[in-house]
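question for whoever is on the cluster today: can someone run the full assembly for these? two chains, 753 residues total. i dont have access anymore since they changed the login thing
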Amino acid sequence: MKTWQVSVKLDNIKKTFGNNVVLDIPDFTVNSGDIMGLVGNNGAGKTTLFRIILDLLQPDEGGKASINEFITHNTEDWKDFTGAYIDAGFLIDYLTPEEYFDFIAKINGMSKEDLNVQLQKFEHFMGGEVIGQNKLIRNLSAGNQQKVGIISAMLHQPGLLILDEPFNFLDPSSQLAMKRLLEDYNKETGATILVSSHNLSHTLDICTRVTLLEHGHIIKDYDQRENNPGSDNTESTKLDKQQIIDEIQHYFEDNQ
Amino acid sequence: MNKYQLYRQISKNKKLAAKRHPMFERNKAMKIFGYCFAAFWAVYLIIIGIALAFGLSDASCEAYDYINGGFIIFLTIDFFMRLGMQETPAQDIKPYKLLPIKTNFLMDIFLIKIGLGVINLIWLFFFIPFSIKAIWLLPHYGFLNFLSYNIGIWLMFVANGYWYLFWRTFINQKMIYILCPTIIYGALIYFGMVNQEWLYNSSMNFMRGFINGNLLSYIGVIAFIFVFFLINRFFQKKFIYKEISKFEKVKNVRSREMSFLNRFGQIGEYLKLEIKSVQRNAVVRKQFITGVICMLMLCALFSFTEVYDAGFMRTFICVYCFACLGVITLTSIMCVEGNYIDGLMSRRESVLSLLKAKYYFNCMMMIVPILFILVPIFKGKVGIWEVLGCLFFTTGVIFPFLFQLAVYNNTTIHLTNQLTKSGQSSKSQIIVSMVALFVPMGIMYALITLSNQTIAGIIMCIIGLTGTILNPIWLRNIYKRFMNHRYENMAGFRQTR
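^ ran it for u. tokens below:
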């Protein structure tokens, strides 16, 4: 089993659409092995941030996102150890889930045996509704499409995993399975995981670090682990789960 | 809000929907192209109308009698012309369905809009100039006869529009229904005009009623319009509920391994994607089948007839036997992939592998024309150098040209759109496909004029073979340029997804 050392560094990331500044992060680091939860209202800039990290969106001039030593818009080297699922735009929906997993495995250089071993790990998460259905991905329910996307992002055991709203569309038992999957994966591989969610409780259950993003700015950065160095330039606050929930709820109430 | 205001509001919403569609920028290019095309046809119809007015009159029969007798042919052309231009109102009504407006009233508004549509006036470009000479200027007729005739003509096309709408509702459900009106029109023309003359005579008499202001003719056509208005209202209402409760029939999919492609590694995986995309996506399949049919038709013309045996035309058709599938499918290169571009872009060089797979797939399809063209080669009708020249010119010059569109295309094609939905093309797609069609013609013409067909074939072969062998270089160059355009392209794909 690999033990990853992957960090993400954002440097002067700004994104404007017309006159509207949707993201403005001067400096921020996600340390290796962190499970970082990004919370915020709709339009806070969570998906935009993930897209910029993944080089799917160009930041304004001067900004750069780096994964380890690789600046994402200069090279493709980081793609070998990064897995991501943002939305259905990641899925080739005219394939069956089996065909899609097979495709992902082969382009990542995995053997059929490796693929089968990996898929076994997701058996509980799939709940018997994904594999063996003889259906195209586009004919699966939104929840099952979400599962296919998440599994395909994790299949090649990436050192950096980015999931946008992974709990969306999932039923309660799949949400619990999802949480366990991410925690176990982080423990086993030391991978860095970035998730965004509207669900504060789920985010706090699994994340070592929670960052509140509003109107494109990082408002709060909480660290649930003792002795975690946190971000270089963001003052991280060490609080327990309930305190964080209370603080975030107060923030939203005050800023309604 | 009264009924008229509501009608105005819905009309305004329809205009805004077109104006604010993400495709609007591309629509502009298409619109200019469309306006030029429409202007050409308007002028063409006017010229034909005047020419027929002069040419058809003889001592025994007036020009208008000929045209009126064969009016079914105009109606047939009009019907099939509408397939690409006029859609049903059921989808338009959907957003208004939950508003406190009666469905019947809404449906009436949309049906009236269809009746008053510009599409029903197109044929007047033919009939007005025709009837000026053939009716108005005749000694026994005058302006009123001319006017009443053209009003009658307009009503006939309005009636044809509602008749079309009736069938279009069913065609939207299943493409096979297109056979019904085809058979009806075919049978009417064959049994009413070619075999016997009952339709010709009755059509002539009925239409003469319009010239003479005979109320019975007007009542007849208005009754038809009214009846089909009610029939359409009934079926369209049923169709709305089908639209709202629509679910795609989910078929069990049989997965095929295609293990013979495994030896090609990552490119083999993308080749499998190409094949599955054609098998499982209606739009891609339609495009591919159209291309193959064109290719087969050109091959058959070239191999089994003597239509294109003359010097330059022979080479020209031979090139298009090879190139037409590519011209049809590659003009929208990457537009299908726009549906899952984020997934591709988050994996290293996946777009490069995809481009290579597309190139090899199109090269493999060359086997079809090669098999056909063996016939004229054995007959001695065409030289081997000429055929090789055409083959490699396609794979080494025309394909690299078409692949340039991968850099500029940024509009997603919806994979499961209805077959009859009119397509959209961007300015660059139109320009590149035109260039791909006409530049080879210019080069070949120059080569054949300056030398002979064998030497021209050898030169084309050398140029084409060089381009074919260098495919890794130009494909990587296209990939690099694609990557330079990636943010713009990804934004375009997402907006139009």
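summary bc i know u wont read the tokens: Residues 3-244 of chain B form one domain. Chain B has two domains: 3-244, 260-495.
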